[in-house]
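FORM 12-B: Structure-to-Sequence Request
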């Protein structure tokens, strides 16, 4: 539940940033269209970047190459 709330807050705050950075008055129809266009482009860019990062992370070799044996001194 907390994760859903955090994600929703993230998207609401990002929408407010898009509105304020583009000086959009949301009572005008043309500004609403501009907002929806900018917001969908931003979300698609976030999804594209996530796909690229995930793809690169999958390609990485996460296992150790060789296990080294440690020689203990004879006591």
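FORM 12-B RESPONSE
SEQUENCE OUT:
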């Amino acid at each position: 539940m907390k994760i859903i709330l955090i994600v929703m807050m993230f998207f609401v705050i990002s929408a407010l940033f898009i509105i304020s950075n583009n000086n959009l008055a949301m009572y005008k129809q043309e500004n609403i269209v501009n907002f929806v266009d900018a917001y969908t482009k931003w979300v698609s860019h976030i999804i594209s970047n996530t796909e690229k990062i995930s793809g690169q992370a999958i390609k990485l070799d996460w296992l150790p190459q060789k296990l080294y044996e440690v020689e203990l001194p004879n006591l």
